[in-house]
Amino acid sequence: MSRQVDVTPIINLINEGVNDPSLIFAKKETNTNKTNGSTAKSISGKIKSKIRGNNAKSTQMKIAPTNLWNEDNAAQNNVKISRPGHDSWGIKKIALVFCDDFLHTIYTLPWYQCTIGGQAAPSSVGDKMHAAIQPILDVLQIKQSQMVRCLLAALPPGVTIPIHHDTGEWVKYTHRVHVPIIVPDPTKVLFRCGPTEKMMERIDCTPGYVFEMNNQAKHTVTNAGTEFRVHLILDYVDPAFFEMRAKQKCPVNRVNLSAGEIITQTRRSIDRAKEAGSRPQPSFLILGAQKAGTTSLYEYLTQHPWVVKAKRRETHCLDWRWNDSLSSTEERRAHCLDFYHAEAMKPYPSLRTGDSTPSYLLDYYRVIPRLKECFNHEPQLIILVREPIKRAVSHYSMVTSMDGTPEQLKVRGLEWREKSFEQVIEQDVKNMKDDGLLPYWDMEKKCVNKDVFDSFIDSPEEDEAWEKYIRTRVPLNTGSYSPLARGLYALQCRQWFRSFSKDKFLVMKLEDMSSAEKGVEWVIDKSLEHLGLPRYQVSDIDKKNARDYIDPFEGKDELKKWLHRFFAPHNERFGKLVVNELGYDEADWTNLWSY
Questions:
Q1: Spatial CB neighbours of 129, under 8 Å, sequence gap ≥ 6
Q2: What share of the chain in percent tops pLDDT 90?
Q3: Can the peptide bond before residue 289 be classed as cis, meaning omega within 30 degrees of 0?
Q4: Prediction pTM value
Q5: Is 423 within 8 Å of 489 (Cβ atoms)?
Q6: Orientation of helix 421-434 relative to helix 388-400, angle to 10°
């Protein structure tokens, strides 16, 4: 099939005003980076882009609506799109189809919306543009639905786009196609592309020549002529891409933008200004358990370009940073939301933020009512668990360590500094026994009476004893408490499962991160899926907040054995809870941490 098409219909649509100077380039020195008189607040280095719109007053004379290159015309009858690199080089554009960096939403702009069949608002430009571009799609043997980006770009005379390669998630999945449209003298356009700078080769820029290039490779272009050079730049995906995204539970959205609509952009996201504030923050909370990989997971998730770090990883705004002096829900909500850049995040509903405060899982009686009061949109909830004995050892090691900042040492508390691990866990068992929580535990023989256990769990008496323990044994001024109770995951999780919809929860095991079948990437993918985010390859997957510690079981086999006896029925109970309440795979949660 010929790679040459007749581009005359496109030229007829865009020829008017093609050689008018770029207003962006002309204003660059006097009005750098200003749009609508404001620049969006930077958040953790991720929100650094401007709100784009059409309400800036024009200083130019009225331009005919048939001049598609004119910015004021585009702002009124199409939608203004920012492309920082192209804008800095003075490249003019006519945007037709565009998408965010993750191909999550594909936006069709008014000048490419077709009125046939009444599918969109009337736009003769859209009808004509569809018909003019269709021969290019025919040559490529693709459907309109496969297009994710399409624009016409006019490179000014005397301008060179330096050697570079395109980056971003969209590049991995797309085919980049160029079609020269208006090239007064192809010999004066030097377009080169290749795997390395030394291996770049010149590409024919004869009008109508359809060519695909690898935009992940090095490429550069110089317009040595005296007039603007215009290319149509088109990106498309294979049909399998949409199937892949559907399987990942992150299907691609399609949106028709309205004429004159304002959009907000960051480097990696695009949102509609009219949807500002539609995503309440925080989007997620990692509830715990403590010493179960919560720091690592938070650091992994916040590497995603659409996940913004809270002001603190552990905000504690619902437990010990809760402000009791505030008298109204509105004041308390404002206090909590301040930890999440809530106001600055409003224009960008594609973005998420959240925190990881692992004390929340245990401290349910304080946290749940406060969460419902201040975050009544009910954010997504993530729970990580870990084999409870290893969790307890890590907990003890952390709070008795002298490494850390003065603030960290203060928060850990002094209660365990002069006590052995065995003394600490013996005390926690005694506390639970005294509060009526362990009628099935024989303190002398250190074993579980299984009949009593089976009759006691899930009873009103257990609920009463558990609440007594939580209310009296969980302080706010120290981290030195509940080394074993924090490993009773069924008792902790069921309080949360009773309070929120089951689809709000994602429960995973720390051990999943190191398993051959799953691994860190699996944990990250599951978490992003839970947050409704497209997948992202995280660059840093090292463990966070990990530490070496002395084995407290050295020479104490009986200590480990009675802990096995203590936790075995609780582990089994927790596995059944997750299967029954959340519908998780029984194979993953049966014989959980079997001893």
A1: 10, 13, 96, 111, 112
A2: 82
A3: yes
A4: 0.90
A5: no
A6: 120
